[in-house]
Automatic annotation (TrEMBL):
Keywords: Oxidoreductase. The keyword Oxidoreductase applies. The keyword Oxidoreductase applies. This is 3-alpha-hydroxysteroid dehydrogenase. It comes from Frondihabitans sucicola. InterPro entries: NAD(P)-bd_dom_sf, Sc_DH/Rdtase_CS, SDR_fam.
Amino acid sequence: MGRLDGKVAIVTGASRGMGESHAKRFIKEGAKVMLTDLNEESGQKLAAELGDNARFTKQDVTKLEDWTRVVAATEEAFGPITILVNNAGILGPVTTTVDLDEEAYQKVMSINADSQFLGAKSVIPSMLKAGIGSIVNISSLAGLRANYGFPSLAYVASKFATRGMTKAIAAEYGANNIRANSVHPGFINTPMMVEATDEGGGDALKEIFLGRLAEADEVSSLVLFLASDESSYITGAEHKIDAGMSAH
Ligand SMILES: NC(=O)c1ccc[n+]([C@@H]2O[C@H](COP(=O)([O-])OP(=O)(O)OC[C@H]3O[C@@H](n4cnc5c(N)ncnc54)[C@H](O)[C@@H]3O)[C@@H](O)[C@H]2O)c1
């Protein structure tokens, strides 16, 4: 028996990195999963490898009309949605506030934060039909504190925003059996992190108690728990997965 038997999930940013890992783990545990991403080629290939319980829809998470299309396609394929993992995100430029241009700031806010509002707005009606729901918003350690002058103000602000939205959703929809939690990863071995360490994030590595980056699958274990009914009394909470980085 799978830990997500009977569940219908949307995972955004699922063509690579942590989103890919979460989608794989969800399928393994019996869920039906709609993978979405801007990158159509890898997403289609991955969904085909994962079999009949996986589908892919191309989506820009910043567009409400894309969300409407993804929800309709998921319901048509699998029925009402019970899990949403708002995972898609970008690092954006690593630069000081004075040098951060307004367009870059807006882009980071839009992809990392506004998308999670649009996701909740679009998916909650389906969860209300199902009578149950779990929303897992991927934030960051940067959603709890600023870090070594890295990453940018925009990234920090976007990840604080997702944490606040998570609590608002938990408060509003708890009575409807819909839970919402935020996940705050430290340094995870994904293409985004390779980019980030090139940009100077490498200095932070010495702060990790376990002395290594996490593999994406280690984050999937936490996301799986929060998505499943095993976490039925957990909502409105922050969940750090950082090997002690924030314990200093
Ligand atoms: N890697 C880390 O160490 C780390 C740490 C803390 C938080 N995070 C967060 O975890 C999440 C996943 O990060 P990752 O490291 O797997 O990143 P990644 O760059 O490896 O993957 C992100 C995916 O999101 C997709 N994406 C980007 N913009 C999109 C858009 N507008 N619409 C749809 N899809 C879009 C990309 O195509 C990509 O497939 C992000 O929200 C990131 O901020 C990552």
